[in-house]
Amino acid sequence: MTSYSRTVAAVVALTLAALAGCSGGSGAPAGWTRVQDGWLQVDVPDDWSDGASLDAPWTLSRQDAEGDDATMQLAGAPTLGYYRADEGRGTLLASMQVGGYPDFAVVDQSDPVDTGELELTRTDFTYAAQDGGDTLHGVLWVGSAPDTGKAVAVQLTGTDLPTDVVEQVQDSIAVLDTEATPAP
Questions:
Q1: Where is the signal peptide (predicted)?
Q2: Beta carbons within 10 angstroms of residue 162's beta carbon
């Protein structure tokens, strides 16, 4: 092996080691875990635990602490159905306004962003805590794959939503082309 070859091999080995150190697994950045469920792929902080059972279509639940100590929760609908992102969002927002979020109010809403692989909407909202406590904040994303029409949803809620958590969750959302069956 020549000196040049050894240098190239060393650089490649160091680069691979550095890349491995930056990942929380399966492409997630350090401190995060990439979760795949149904058609949904999303990054969740490493130290978050499984959350309480939720009502359909929300079957994925992670939170930042156990039980009542949790201040943030991520909910996922990994097989929302066959929708364009804005249609899926409309369906979910209607159920949030009518069915279960006291004093629900949309704060901001984006038009669908289509990257070719993913069409994604974002809705920022607030609602009243059921115990009469602080106003809670939330972000709802609905993503769909333009080529298959498969749609997923992710919702992040809490008393405070750190920008870095919101951005990583948003940037990691993907719709996978799996054989999962949509929720009824």
A1: 1-20
A2: 10
pTM of the model: 0.82
Domains of the chain: 32-175 (3.40.1000.10)
Residue 183 in this model has a pLDDT that exceeds 80: no
Cβ(157)–Cβ(54) under 8 Å?
Answer: no
Residue 46 has φ and ψ, to the nearest 5°, of -55, -35
Residue type, 174: A
How many whole angstroms separate alpha carbon 99 and alpha carbon 61?
19
- How many Å apart are CA 113 and CA 49, to the nearest integer? 30
The residue type of 108 is D
Structure tokens at 77: 């609908």
Q: Bridge partners of 157?
A: 73, 138
Q: Are strands 32-37 and 40-45 parallel, antiparallel or unpaired?
A: antiparallel
Residue 17 neighbours by CB under 8 Å, 6+ apart? none
